[in-house]
Design goal:
mainly alpha; 99 residues
Length: 99
């Protein structure tokens, strides 16, 4: 029993600092593997539109993977879609500062 004034505890948010920026449920290992396969296929795609489609599917399967955003940034930059390239580059850096 605590008598006197109640002690106010400062909330501890340290556990939030340990989590990555991706707030959702982690993708399954199978989804991550399929996303990497799609990213690999996109590198061999003849048309940039096809590469972007494959990378879009890969990002949907594994949103917290910064390499997918980096690959999509490169495709956008080759097509001179610089705003989209910058958006994906910012996402990549927000997920991994070494991106």
């Amino acid at each position: 029993v605590h008598r006197g004034r109640p002690v106010r505890r400062v909330p501890d948010y340290g556990h939030l600092l340990l989590d990555s920026l991706y707030p959702g449920k982690r993708p399954s290992p199978e989804a991550v593997l399929r996303a990497r396969e799609l990213a690999e296929q996109s590198q061999h795609a003849d048309e940039p539109e096809e590469a972007l489609k494959l990378l879009g599917e890969a990002v949907l399967l594994s949103p917290p993977d910064p390499t997918l955003y980096l690959a999509r940034t490169q495709v956008h930059a080759r097509r001179d879609h610089l705003v989209e390239a910058l958006d994906d580059a910012e996402l990549c850096v927000s997920l991994d500062s070494n991106c």
